[in-house]
Every structure is written in C-alpha cells, then in structure tokens.
C-alpha cells in the first residue's frame, strides 16, 4: 500500500469505528501514528486495528490519566515488544498540576524503560505531550537516555525558544497541527526549525466515540501542511513532499 501522507499524532481509536476510518485513510494514501492514552485503550485499539497496514499504533499513558507512579506499570510491561509509544509526557497546566509528582515519576519510569528496550536498528518512537512542562520533559528524556536511544517527537510544542533549541540539540522532532499553527509561536517555530525535524499532525478526534472519518483527518492535515508552507515561504507540494519524507524516515 502506497502511503503518501502521514498524520504523526492522532487518536484513531477514538473514532466510533476505527477500522473503517483506517481503511478510508488507506484509500486516500494517508498513514497514521495512532496514539492512545492508556494501556487498556491500546489493547482495545490493537484488536480493532489489527492488520491495518497504514497504521502505526502506539501504546501510551497520557499525563491526564496519571494518578500514581504505579500507573506506569502496565505500559512498562508492554514496552519490550513495542516500537511505537505515545501519548506520554507531562502537563503542568492549572487543572493538572495536582498530579505533578505522580506524572513526573511515571514519565521517568516510562522513558527509562523505553531507553532500555530500544533497538538501535529500529529505535522506539515516542510521541510526547509537554504542556507548561517542556523543560521537565526534556530533563526526563535526557536523564533516562531516551533522547539518545529513541526517536522523540514533541507534539504541539509550546515551550520557550530556549527549550525549542535544547530539544533540537537532543535530536527531537516536532509535530505541528492546524491549532498549533494558528498561534504566533507555532508559526514561528515551524518557520525556524530545521526542515528535517518537521512533521504534521491532526490530534483528532477530540473525544472518544467520535463520528466522522478520514475526511476530517485529511482536511485537518491539509490545513496543517498549508500553515507550515506559509510559515516557511514554501510551496504546498514542496512542503507535502518534505513532510512525507520526514515521516517515512521516522516510521519506516
């Protein structure tokens, strides 16, 4: 199957019929790095999406779902047999800061396990959430060895310019969606980043049991591609080819 475009961060399992959406996406030449928010969601999605050649299904532990460091146990147990990991990370926004210590402990455990079990020939790929927590997330990725041994993608990055360039030095890539590119900071980061670190995402759908399908993913991805093209002063076809090349290198 010929995939010509990649959505490098979406919640495919949140569609009411993920198998149908995956098949629709395949018909449009669209591939997906489908993240999950808990290991139990991953287990359910793995059954629904088994055999979808255009889907890379990632096992995750989203910081919104963390209450204790022990919440990392189930994900850590899965990691030796997995290449795709996400959505994982940290969130220090006001609604989430009450679980901060547990988030940090769980994320550090996951990062350390990813580093231990990553294969140099086919390194693990981590899709990382970092809201008001970019520095702490980078600390964990660096201290545990995950930044060096894995391929880390910062989803919807909103940290400072200093944190952006620290992440670049650590080898991170960055996935931009249309909502990130609607902000001045998002457009500036898409403009200045090295071209080979850029990826496109949708982060769709927004909630479980969502109606709709691949049309929504394709339309959002097209708007993200147009936003990156405008930010960098490039043609749409040139940007689409660049993003496809970057995603293929990451996900092959």
Verbal overview:
- The mean pLDDT is 97.
- The strands form two sheets. A six-stranded parallel beta sheet has the order 4-5-6-7-8-9. A three-stranded parallel beta sheet has the order 1-2-3, sandwiched between helices.
- The chain is 46% helix and 17% strand.
- The protein has one domain: Metal-dependent hydrolases (TIM Barrel), CATH 3.20.20.
- It contains eleven helices and nine strands.
- The two termini are 13 Å apart.
- The chain has 252 residues and is α/β, with parallel strands linked by helices.
- Helix 7 (161-169) links the parallel strand 7 (151-155) and strand 8.
- Helix 1 (18-27) crosses helix 10, helix 9 (184-192) packs across helix 10 and helix 10 (214-232) crosses helix 11.
- Class based on secondary structure composition and strand pairing: alpha/beta
Q: What's the order of the H and E elements?
A: EHEHEEHEHEHHEHEHHEHH
Evaluate the radius of gyration. Answer: 17 Å
- Strand segment tally: 9
Low-confidence spans: none
Largest sheet, described in full?
Answer: 6 strands, parallel
The helix content, as a percent range, equals: 40-55%
Helix and strand topology:
Layout: E1 5-10, H1 18-27, E2 30-34, H2 39-48, E3 55-57, E4 59-61, H3 73-78, E5 84-91, H4 100-117, E6 125-131, H5 134-144, H6 146-149, E7 151-155, H7 161-169, E8 173-176, H8 178-181, H9 184-192, E9 198-200, H10 214-232, H11 236-251
Parallel strand pairs: 1-2, 2-3, 4-5, 5-6, 6-7, 7-8, 8-9
Helix pairs in contact: 1-10, 4-5, 9-10, 10-11
Provide a quick synopsis of the model.
It contains 11 helices and 9 strands.
